[in-house]
Design brief:
Strand order of the largest sheet: 1-2-4-3
Bound molecules: zinc ion
Structural class: alpha/beta
Number of domains: 2
Number of strands: 4
Order of helices and strands: EHEEEHHHHHHH
Oligomer: single chain
Mean pLDDT: 91
Distance between the termini: 31 Å
């Protein structure tokens, strides 16, 4: 999969952040793709993915088909370290993996329910991918950090963590089987 990192900013810190993300991707690409495949059963499609690097609140957002992903590299205090950047990249790639496989919300609003549903789905495999790519210790730190972001994200993690690996795999099997969004609505709520 071709991934292109860019920034619209014109400052050294942003250019360096682009280089850091590029390096994270180059070094870990095979591990990342293998891990997503192992834990979700899904492949990314082969369209190039453009990711903009910017100073934004939170980790970033996934974008959508034809809309670029955006990833953050710092808050107002400091630059994030590489393991945090990798964790952000994996979170947003998890959303894109589902979107590119036609597994997406049919809801039109952007409120709690939509966020809760979107994060329940990625939380079926995101922790396992984090462990493979950044290690258990960083994965656990990132999990605790996500608990503190929004109620939808916290609730989604509680839901996913209440299930065993096998139960999460069974939910994923349902998602893979019913990729059509209309059918999907009935299978995971
Ligand atoms: Zn998310």
């Amino acid at each position: 999969m071709r991934v292109i990192f860019k920034t619209k900013n014109n400052d050294l810190e942003s250019f360096l952040a682009v280089q850091r993300y590029q390096r994270i991707w180059q070094v870990n690409q095979k591990t990342i793709l293998d891990s997503f495949k192992l834990h979700s059963g899904l492949d990314f499609n082969h369209r190039p993915l453009t990711i903009y690097v910017d100073r934004i609140d939170g980790s970033g957002h996934s974008g959508d088909i034809g809309m670029p992903m955006v990833l953050s590299f710092r808050d107002d205090q400091a630059m994030y370290d590489d393991s945090r950047l990798a964790a952000f990249l994996l979170h947003e790639l998890a959303h894109r993996l589902l979107i590119s496989n036609g597994i997406r919300s049919v809801r039109k609003d952007y409120g709690y329910q939509r966020n809760f549903l979107a994060h329940k789905r990625i939380d079926l495999f995101l922790y396992d991918v984090w462990v493979d790519v950044v290690g258990r210790s960083v994965a656990s730190q990132e999990l605790i950090r996500e608990f503190d972001t929004t109620k939808a994200i916290f609730d989604a993690w509680q839901w996913a963590l209440s299930k065993s690996y096998e139960e999460r795999q069974a939910e994923l099997a349902k998602l893979r089987k019913h990729r059509d969004a209309k059918k999907l609505r009935d299978h995971i709520k």
